[in-house]
Amino acid sequence: MIKESRVTYKSEAEIEEINFWKSKSFEEKISIVQVLREQYIVFFNKRDKYAESRKRLRRVYKIIK
After folding, report:
1. Based on the number of CB atoms within 10 Å of its own CB, is 41 exposed (0-12), middle (13-18) or buried (19 or more)?
2. In contact, 48 and 42? CB cutoff 8 Å
């Protein structure tokens, strides 16, 4: 049995978006992800859970360090 696969794009805009993200540096991508995380935390009122998980992360970081 021969299997074939083909990647197709829905629109020119999708191709442009892929090229846009390929052109960004690693630091820029991480920065944008952080902005989105912060917006999510505020929008969905997750500040308490975020603060709690941050404390755990700091504790793990100190132990590892």
Report:
1. middle
2. no
Whether this prediction's pTM lies above 0.70 is answered by no
| Domain-wise residue ranges, the chain | 12-64
Judged by phi (left if over 0) then psi (alpha if -120 to 50, else beta), residue 45 lies in left
pLDDT digits (tens, 9 = 90+) for 36-55: 988 888 888 888 777 777 77
| H or E element in which residue 20 lies | helix 12-23
Six-digit token pair at 17?
Answer: 């978006």
| 44 three-class SS | coil
Residue type, 19: N
